[in-house]
Amino acid sequence: YTNPINNPNAYENIETPDQLIYVVVEHTGSVSVPATGCSTIKAITLHVDLLPVAEYTQIEVCDDNDVNSLPPNNTSDGIIEFDLTDYIGQITGGATGVDVEFYTTEIAAEAGLGTATVPSTDFIDTPTAYENEFNPQAIFARILNPSTGCYAVAIVSLNVNPNPTPLST
Prior knowledge:
Blueprint: E1 18-26, E2 39-47, E3 57-62, E4 81-82, H1 88-91, E5 99-103, H2 106-111, E6 130-131, E7 137-144, E8 151-161
Parallel strand pairs: 3-8
Antiparallel strand pairs: 1-2, 4-6, 5-7, 7-8
């Protein structure tokens, strides 16, 4: 046999998404049945789906959307409303055909319970109007390819920068 797989319990494919390998099954006998020496070769296709793209994304905004608001929200406090969906293309590297959910913890993003009957309390259910809890804040995007079931998690860093203050003389 040419190019045997010496450690089949730790074989790493060398082609994606499909790689053809062969298995040889040989009758080696047992205590009660002597070996026949007969063998057969069967092809096996290894199929490996790639993970979706999940890019670390840093979002930098100025703390100026509250300046013209009525009190008490007219202070530069580092808290602002983000439309996280504006950054999906950046997070996914422009990939299409993927679902993106946002979470406040990595554990919740890995579990992916956002759309479950009992969603995670860390699930951001309104990503079009998410107000950061502190500044800076890391949240997590779960990118799922629904056709393969494969997912990846990306860190999304939310940074609210203070506006410069004019000096008075």
